[in-house]
Write a structure and sequence with these properties.
By secondary structure, the chain is α+β, with helices and mostly antiparallel strands. Strand 6 and strand 7 form a beta hairpin. It is 38% helix and 20% strand. 7% of the residues are buried. Helix 1 runs antiparallel to helix 2 and helix 2 packs antiparallel against helix 4. The protein contains five helices and seven strands, in the order E-E-H-E-E-H-H-H-E-E-E-H. It has two domains: 110 residues, no CATH class; 37 residues, putative fmn-dependent nitroreductase like domains (putative fmn-dependent nitroreductase like fold, Single Sheet), CATH 2.20.180. The protein is globular and about 55 Å long. Strands 5-7-6 form a three-stranded mixed beta sheet. Strands 1-2 form a two-stranded antiparallel ribbon.
Length: 150
Amino acid sequence: MTVIWTGMVVLSILCGLAAGRGPEVAAAAVEGGAAAYPYHLDGELCALYPAEDILAMGEQAAAHKLYHTTYYNHLAAWVRRCESAEEVSAITYGAELPEDLAPMLIVAIGKPAEEVVIREIEPGEPTPYYRDEQDVHYVPKRKLADIVIH
């Protein structure tokens, strides 16, 4: 879920278990000896996933959270040095960082090993991630206007 708050983007990942800590809880269960664990993807029914899939999801969730937390912190640093509301409003989530901030992000989390494309979708389109023939990773995202309740 993405929330716009005073010109900044706050990202929170809602996993449905243990107050948003679903992947960690599931990973702890399989590390404790469970052969499988029930889990659901957004908008999907709950299914029993093998332990190795749960561990892989936990690793990916942790990497995803680390990247977006770090990227957000860099955006926040960029916003703090802005001198006008116009400068702040020009900064959007997903923007390429200024030259002085981009290297610090790479040092903090490394260079991505894959190309990821965030694709805005229409209501009713499927939300699961997918890859094309060139192994580009697509992440379908709903439009903010489609998820915000007024």
